[in-house]
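Entry for zinc ion complex. Fields follow.
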Amino acid sequence: MNVTTKEIFKSELPVGETLSIKRTRFEGSRQDEKKKRISIVSGIHGDELEGQLAIYLLGRWLNENPDKLVGIVDIYPAVNALGVDTITRGFPIYEVDLNRSFPGSKDDFLPGQIVYALTQDIKGSDIAIDIHSSNIFLREIPQIRINKEFSNSTLPLAKELNCDFIWIHDAVTVLEATFSHTLNSLGTKTLVVEMGVGMRLTNKYGDQLLRGMLNLMKQEGIIECEEAFEVRTPFTSETGSVAYMNAPKSGLFVQFLDHCAIINKDDKIGDIVSPLTGEVLAELKAPCDGILFTLREYPVVYEGSLIARIFSTNK
Ligand SMILES: [Zn+2]
């Protein structure tokens, strides 16, 4: 196995610092004519770190099992390197969301140059995975979001990734300026993973996604090994509907349920309380049976804040 780290983008910043975006390539040493390539990206949003853990675990596994790699694994753990360094979701200074800046170009403003460099580097990969971790307000169980337009090619791959839920979005709701839309349009089968919570690491989710990535890589002939990576069967949004729960009042959300619980209609999810008066302002009960796949993490809520998303197989 050959391991090389390369700078895919570099720019001098006005403050005398250098912005550098790097990728590491793990390449099997067997001389195959056409090696399959998977590219794994995280940190397009600088405050989302769960993907860095999953990518670290994958790199460690490859370092421990160099003989099992047949294809090419490219990792880009911190695309928005400046955002990661400054705990910022968007690209600092310009205050733009890199995942709304694709495909970019060479002559674009700095964020557009970065996403262009990333796109050019990944172009030609067979598969790409873009790992996100929600934000600081909401916790997500490991799930995959895919665009209906590309679901014929991406849904079978998504099922190999050991996630709990696959959410297929209608083409109309999908933004074209994203990483996944750009790479899917260029012929790389691209999946978006959402898991965990912003600014934090969830160890068990890192392990869960590692197993899924190894399973996918084995199925696709990127690694070869005896080991069977057993994966869970995800729910998909094709077989049910998603219900949203929003806060009816402003206050402090005190949760009663573990995340990712299978819940029944009228189960208590939590209370919105007033620390000032000692009152319960609202009792929140599940509107349907299903799995709670998104749950409010940050406890201060305002009227209308998203509290939970529940996937229901009732209809
Ligand atoms: Zn994100």
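NOTE: The first helix runs from residue 50 to 64.
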